[in-house]
Amino acid sequence: MPWHCPHCAARLEAASLEGAVPCPWCGSIVYAEEGDGIPHRIVSSCRSETEIRRTALDCFRRRGSPGEPGRLGVVYVPYYVFESTAGAGPWTGTAAVGLPSADLVTIPIYGTDTRWFDPAALPEGANVMEASRSLESAAEGRTVVELRHVPIALVSYEERGEPGSLWIDADRGRVLAGGPRRTDSVGARRAFPRALWGAAGAAGFCGLVLPPPWSIWGAAGSAIAFMLAGSGQRRRAARAAR
After folding, report:
1. C-alpha distances in angstroms, 213 versus 203, 206, 219, 238?
2. In angstroms, rounded to a whole number, what is the distance separating the alpha carbons of residues 60 and 64?
3. Which end of the chain is more exposed for a tag (fewer CB within 10 A), N or C?
4. 181 contacts 195 by C-beta, under 8 angstroms
5. pLDDT tens-digit profile of 70-106?
6. What is the largest CA-CA distance in the chain?
7. Residue 203 belongs to what domain range?
8. Do 231 and 159 share a structural domain?
9. Are 38 and 30 spatial neighbours (Cβ–Cβ below 8 Å)?
10. Number of domain units in the chain
C-alpha cells in the first residue's frame, strides 16, 4: 500500500518498509507499520548523572525519606505522541512498550529538542527499547504526531532495608513514578499551619461575640495565632526562594 513520507511527502511503498527506516528520498527516519508511517524522533538532550541524583535526593527530602539514590540507569522508551484535545494542555505520550509502572504508560509531552531517530547516531552505551505495541491499539481514535524515544532514568534506592525504584524524566528532570511514600511527619508539618489559621479564625469569632473580658482574651488569642501562622508561611517562602 503506498503512503507518503511525513517529512518530504515522497511517495513510498510500505510493503518494502517496516519498523524504523530512512526515507530513500530525504533520509528522514520514519516508523512504518501496517501500510502507514509516522515520524520517528528521539529526544536530543539528557541530564547528567549528577543532575538526576540531585532530582532524586530532592524527591526524597520533600517526602521526608532518609533514602539515598543508588544504582542509576537511563533507558530510551518509545512513546506514541498524540495531539491534545482542542489544542488545550500538553501533548500526551502513550508507551509503545510494556512498562513496570502504570504511571509510566501515559505521560505529558512538553516542548523539547528532538532529532530524527538514527540507530547509527545514538548516545554511546544507550539502552533503547523497540516499539512492541501497535499504533492502532494505542491511538483509540486520537491523532498521532510521531513516535518519540524519551530518556527515562531508573534510580534504585533502599529505605529502612526495603528496596525501591524511582523513575525520572531524564530530559526535563521531573519525577514520573515510584519513590518513597510521603511520611506522616511531612503531613503533620503541613497540617500544623492550617490548624493555626483555623484557631486564629475561631479565636477572632469568639472575640466578636463574647462579652468582656472573654472578648479581650479571644482577640489576643486570634492575634497570636495569626502571628505564628504567618511567620511559618514566611519561613517556607524564604526556604523555597533559596
Report:
1. 13, 11, 10, 38
2. 6
3. C
4. no
5. 999 999 999 999 987 665 667 889 999 999 889 999 9
6. 92
7. 184-241
8. no
9. yes
10. 2
Distance of CA 203 to the CA centre of its chain: 42
pTM value surpassing 0.85: no
Grid coordinates of 199 = 484557631
Residues in the chain: 242
Please enumerate in sequence order all residues whose Cβ is within 8 A of that of 208, keeping only pairs 6 or more positions apart, or say none.
215, 218
How far is Cα 151 from Cα 107, in angstroms, rounded to an integer? 12
- The Cα–Cα gap between 200 and 157 comes to 42
Which single residue is written with the C-alpha cell 491534545?
A: 84
Q: What are the CA-CA distances from residue 21 to residues 41, 82, 90, 109, 150 (Å)?
A: 11, 21, 28, 24, 18
Q: Where are the alpha helices (DSSP H) in 111-151?
A: 135-139
Could you give the CA distance from residue 86 to residue 230 in angstroms, rounded to a whole number?
Answer: 42
